[in-house]
Amino acid sequence: MGELILIASYPKSGNTWMRFLLDSLRRGGDEVDLRRSPFTNAAARSLNDRRLDMETSDLTLTEVANARAWMANRSSGGGGEPAILKVHDALLAPPGCQPPFGKETVRAAICLLRDPRDVAVSFAHHLGESVDAVIARMADEDHWLSADQDRLRPNLPQYLSSWSRHVTSWLDGDLPVVAVRYEDMLARPEETLTPVLAFAGLETDVTALRRALAATRFEILKAQEARNGFGERLPAATSPFFRRGQAGGWRDSLTGSQVERIVAKHGPVMRRLGYLD
Amino acid sequence: MALDYLLCGWRVRADMVLPELPPWRGDDRTPEVIIRLGDTPDRLDGSVALSPFLTIAGDGRCLFSIEAVGDFLVEGGTNVVLRPRGDPGSTETRLFLLGTVLGLLCHQRGLFPLHASCVRRDGRAYAFAGPSGAGKSTLAATLARSGDALLSDDVCVIDPGAAGGPAVLPAFPRVKLWRDSLDRFGVPADSLERNRPDQEKYHWRLPVLDDQGAVPLAAVYLLDRAGPETPAGLSDIESLPARAAALTSHVFRRQAGEALGRRESLFADAVRVAAAVPVRRLIRDLNGADAWRVPAALEVAWAS
Q1: What is the pLDDT of residue B1?
Q2: How does DSSP assign B213-224, residue by residue?
Q3: Over 80: is that where the pLDDT of A220 sits?
Q4: Pairing relation of β-strands B47-49 and B33-37?
Q5: Looking at the DSSP assignment, which residues form a beta bridge with residue B225?
Q6: If you average pLDDT over every residue of chain B, what do you get?
Q7: Engineering a disulfide at A121: which of A19, A253, B176, B200 sits with its beta carbon 3.0 to 4.6 angstroms away?
Q8: Is B292 on the interface with A (CB under 8 A)?
Q9: How far apart are CA A17 and CA A38, in angstroms?
Q10: What integer is the mean pLDDT of A200-210?
Q11: Residue B108: which residues within 8 A CB-CB, separation 6 or more?
Q12: In degrees, to the nearest 5, what angle opens at C-alpha B10 toward C-alphas B63 and B160?
């Protein structure tokens, strides 16, 4: 039985919200502080350098990718509570490499899903890029995050592939996974989260859950960011990290042709997830 | 034909050219370290895998493998055998030989290696330890450019029991820098050798040291980046146990050292160094041009 719980998602799909929610929950529903970001990225360089007892910055892309599963195996706390890690990697073996996680390490994966049309808008603001550029990223089956070898990055390269392949890799992969739609978390939070927490072995009582949901309301996180900033916001971002926190905002932001391109590429998976009803 | 070099005060005999190291011009002693090309075992019996790259046997032998480079067998703090898969004279071979392999030799020889860059100023050594990205190499290069001698970039080899107090055994004056840092220093990256084939990280060799003797250690700085919870500045670590713990956490290839049975002696060494030498936190904001300047707090501290 593995020792890790993974909060897995394509970027901009509610990962940060889920992590702060779980952080509040493990403290009985207490307040969160954006300056203390909970649950490291499984691809964080410092974490992996410590596990490897080597500098990953001296390794090639392939060597790092091939060592990921080994390093994840060493990330489990060791007795007591399972370690919780944020993951943006697809559950796929990058070309010529090993997959980043193995069955023996992972107790459960919470896979967060979001309408790719909303993801595109949010990702564009996050990266400071045009929506068209982001739609191309989301369609690219060879896409990596943080893989440029031009300077040292705080995270190791993460193979995302396309949005569709990323999503299906987690839903249909080998690990015990529970899927959660961001839209359902917004619309029916308690009802959505209760079985998710149970699946991950993170059961809690309804009072604590309600308190945690209250403590991580979008307005609260947005206000904290306005006061103190937020470390996960990128320097190039064209909006605050906590921008709108809604479902369906894409209708105001995408052109007809942009919507067509997204649906043309990702339609089957969108239909499967109920985004094209 | 083997060549002899000077490294950390040792006479090193090598089957390949090591341009980072000065040629041996000392006495006719038997080489303390011998690096040859040859066969290595596919695996070590009774060994523990510390990573996908390194296994350590109960008898202290280490087998370190990088697919594109080769297998290094490191034994007794003296013998290194490389079974090469690439060009044994390549930059990436020397990266690992003068990095991890050097670290393993230090542990096998009972020395105290820190993951730190180090410069010599006015006859005293100042070490800068920290994780990747903390700016050890950039700071060392900045200081070297303004006149300090560069003793090490990655592996700062300390002899904790040297007469007169803990001393640094000079490694070699080479820094590994990314292209953006090199641009700042006005050094054309394209004229340098790449660290690994797909990276914009390069090896920049600075002038060879005039004097290669051991240098008394004056201070250890623990570098880190400023953040919301950690403002920029220079501060002392007051208590001896805290200083020793901090030094221990920055031992180069610490887990390998512990696997070699050195946990107690490494801690004892850390205490010894911490008792003799100030250990200070140097937190810097690396987002602006300050990343390439000597921190004012450091200049002030050194002037007094």
Answers
A1: 63
A2: S-EEEEEEEEEE
A3: yes
A4: unpaired
A5: B284
A6: 94
A7: A253
A8: no
A9: 11
A10: 91
A11: B60, B62, B74, B75, B76, B77, B78, B260
A12: 85
| Record: contact A63-B67, CB cut-off 8 A | yes
Q: Does A96 touch chain B (CB under 8 A)?
A: no
Q: Which residues of A touch B154 (CB under 8 A)?
A: 55
B184 close contact with A: CB closer than 8 A: no
pLDDT range class, residue B93, cuts 50, 70, 90:
very high
Asked if B198's CB is within 8 angstroms of A150's CB, the reply is no
CB contact (8 A) between residue B228 and residue A231: yes
Tell me the pTM: 0.94
ipTM: 0.95
Q: In the structure encoding, which two tokens stand for residue B283, read together? A: 């937190």
Cα A235 to Cα B74: distance, rounded to the nearest angstrom: 45
Contacts of B68 (CB under 8 A, 6+ apart): A60, B85, B86, B92
CB of A155 less than 8 A from some CB of B: no
What one-letter code names the amino acid at B301?
A
Measured between CA atoms, the residue of chain A closest to residue B230 is A35
- CA–CA separation, B117 vs B115, rounded Å? 7
**Measured between CB atoms, does A52 come within 8 Å of chain B?**
yes
Please give the structure tokens belonging to residue B38: 């040859």
